[in-house]
Design brief:
Layout: E1 8-12, H1 17-28, E2 32-37, H2 40-50, E3 57-61, H3 67-81, E4 86-89, H4 104-126, E5 135-139, H5 152-172, E6 178-184, H6 190-203, H7 207-216, H8 226-236, E7 248-251
Parallel strand pairs: 1-2, 1-4, 2-3, 4-5, 5-6, 6-7
Helix pairs in contact: 1-8, 3-4, 4-5, 6-7
The structure holds NADP nicotinamide-adenine-dinucleotide phosphate.
NADP nicotinamide-adenine-dinucleotide phosphate binds at residues 12-13, 15-19, 37-39, 62-65, 90-93, 113, 139, 141, 184, 186-187, 189-192.
């Protein structure tokens, strides 16, 4: 299937985890994909694998918290392909920021990457999204739906993404651009591993024990594969989803039902 053969896509946080799976899914379906993250070698190894036949993957070093870095990546994209159809704001970081600890620096960093980064990338990208039917997909989390003690900054950033999504959907509706968000539950990635280890330490149990507790809290009794988040992302950016905007989709094995 080449559903995205005539599309140009930008994916942030494409070096590993969910972002990498999303980028690969678009490439498999024929899109040209700009891969953004801070670690260029990881992006280049992915791009090289896809560029053997045709130049369809562009590795762009970018820190989404820096306006200059974002603008520079977008001008490289403009110089290469001149247009943009789909933006996936996926880059994110996590970390504990308990209220009794002095965690201001980490609080700020989490909000900068997860929330302000999505704003900066969307703003810069819009200049290239002029051909109509554009799509913006923002990666939130089930922690954008409920709170978890010790993770106030992450929860605030992911709740914030939902407000950003709804407001932007209204602002961009007149231009025919849809904006939606995805709220994943536990997905098998480095970030989930780190969260498991961190929480296990706080609870005084092993990582395996906490992982079992986490799985027990998921009705489908498993973590998700990054490819499952990729397939929802592709659907929301497809022509079939042209009537969907301002929505948030839980993909979490049934952890949340509303
Ligand atoms: P991950 O494996 O840690 O990957 C995070 C990605 O973000 C990496 O490519 C990283 O690349 C990039 N990144 C981090 N800071 C960046 C910055 N300042 N500028 C540009 N890129 C940056 O995480 P993941 O699990 O795939 O998570 C992807 C998204 O899904 C995040 O928004 C996360 O909050 C969300 N999510 C994950 C889960 C889960 O269970 N895994 C659940 C719900 C939501 P560099 O380090 O090279 O920059």
């Amino acid at each position: 299937m080449h559903r995205f053969a005539d599309k140009v896509v930008l994916v942030t946080g494409a070096s590993r985890g969910i972002g990498r799976a999303i980028a690969e899914a678009y490439l498999e379906e024929g899109a040209k994909v700009a891969l953004l993250a801070r670690t260029l070698p990881e992006l280049e190894s992915l791009a090289d694998a896809w560029n053997r036949d045709r130049r369809r993957a562009l590795a762009l070093e970018c820190d989404v918290t820096s306006r200059e870095s974002v603008e520079s990546a977008l001008s490289e994209l403009r110089a290469s392909w001149g247009t943009l159809d789909i933006v996936v704001n996926n880059a994110g970081i996590s970390g504990r920021t308990p209220i009794d600890e002095d965690a201001l620096e980490l609080w700020q960093k989490i909000l900068d990457v997860n929330l302000t980064g999505s704003y900066l990338v969307s703003r810069a990208a819009l200049e290239l999204m002029t051909s109509g039917g554009g799509r913006i997909i923002n990666m939130s989390s089930v922690l954008g739906r409920f709170g978890v003690p010790g993770y106030a900054a992450y929860c605030a950033s992911k709740h914030g993404i939902l407000g950003f999504t709804r407001a932007l959907a209204l602002e961009l509706a007149p231009r025919g651009i849809t904006v939606n968000a995805i709220c994943p539950g536990w997905v098998e990635t480095d970030m989930a591993d780190k969260g498991i280890r961190e929480t296990a330490e706080v609870l005084g149990i092993t990582a395996d024990e906490f992982r079992d507790q986490a799985i027990a809290g998921v009705p489908l009794k498993r973590f998700l594969d990054p490819k499952e988040i990729a397939s929802l992302t592709l659907y929301l950016s497809s022509d079939e989803a042209s009537a969907i905007t301002g929505q948030t989709y839980n993909m979490c094995g049934g952890q949340i039902m509303n």
